[in-house]
Specification:
Elements: H1 2-10, E1 32-33, H2 51-60, E2 68-69, H3 70-75, E3 92-93, E4 99-100
Antiparallel strand pairs: 1-2, 3-4
Length: 109
Amino acid sequence: MKQTNEQIENCRNYPTCKASLCPLDPNLRNVIWYPDEDICNRRGLPKTDWLPRQRRIAKKATNRDFFFRLADIKAITRIHRSIKGHNPDAPIVSRRKTPVTRGVMGVVG
């Protein structure tokens, strides 16, 4: 984990980047993202096929009060104006049908 934190800190965009979904973050799958939040603009990182989808969601989503997780972004096949993420006031239900509560700083845990 220390090595990954060093990778994040060595990223050329690190000092000014405000993207909540950082491709270098080891806890990426536990982070939530709202369509009005910043998106990583670094190019050429491996396994970031979800970034173009995230950009399209940010451009098309009209309801910005609902959040998305990385798994949601990866699973989306069609992006349209009425796309809607998870309601922040309702618990998230995982595949095991157990509620996942929203943690501190917008992290799902």
